[in-house]
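Please fill in the sequence for the structure shown.

STRUCTURE ENCODING:
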């Protein structure tokens, strides 16, 4: 502890490093920190302690010296910075006004168009099945001969089997199939040997 300047006969002002919580507790009890330190030091050294005379009335007592920070203490810079940050945070919190949350803007719902069914096996229409069967499995004959006659039951059974092989989900009914062959593709029908048949065509 270095020597300080003289403040009067028999007294000397020196910097003293005090623990902050001790200073706070002493101030709360209105203790004279200088007087308490002198008494403790005098008792430790066995020296008689004479309290200084109080200042005369009308003259303010000298202000108590602020605690001196030891610059050589490695913990001091961190403490100082932390105290500054805490003070700034308190001031900012006091100045900060409450911000009301903004209502979320309503987003209009947009209808997503349904994707068209992909073309392929298992998704053909009934008309497509009949058209493909006629174009790929039936040969039209110009002359009505024994080879150009197919029983209606046999032809529809062949058609059903072909639809299953092609993975058609819906197989046209027999009536729809017969109407299409007669009206759309103009195939002739006749009863041959007691069985309703188609004439002028053969299967591949």
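FILLED IN BY: designer on duty
SEQUENCE:
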């Amino acid at each position: 502890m270095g020597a300080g300047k003289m403040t009067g006969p028999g007294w000397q002002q020196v910097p003293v490093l005090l623990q902050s919580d001790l200073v706070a507790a002493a101030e709360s009890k209105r203790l004279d920190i200088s007087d308490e330190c002198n008494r403790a030091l005098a008792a430790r050294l066995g020296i008689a302690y004479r309290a200084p005379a109080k200042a005369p009335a009308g003259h303010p007592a000298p202000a108590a010296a602020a605690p001196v920070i030891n610059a050589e203490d490695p913990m001091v810079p961190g403490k100082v910075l932390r105290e500054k940050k805490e003070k700034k945070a308190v001031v900012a919190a006091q100045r900060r006004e409450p911000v009301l949350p903004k209502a979320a803007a309503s987003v209009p719902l947009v209808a997503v168009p349904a994707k068209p069914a992909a073309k392929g096996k298992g998704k053909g229409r009934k008309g497509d099945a009949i058209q493909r069967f006629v174009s790929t499995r039936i040969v039209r004959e110009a002359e009505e001969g024994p080879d150009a006659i197919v029983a209606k039951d046999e032809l529809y059974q062949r058609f059903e089997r072909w639809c299953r092989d092609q993975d058609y989900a819906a197989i046209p009914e027999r009536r729809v199939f017969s109407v299409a062959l007669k009206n759309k593709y103009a195939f002739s029908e006749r009863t041959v040997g007691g069985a309703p048949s188609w004439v002028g065509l053969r299967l591949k």
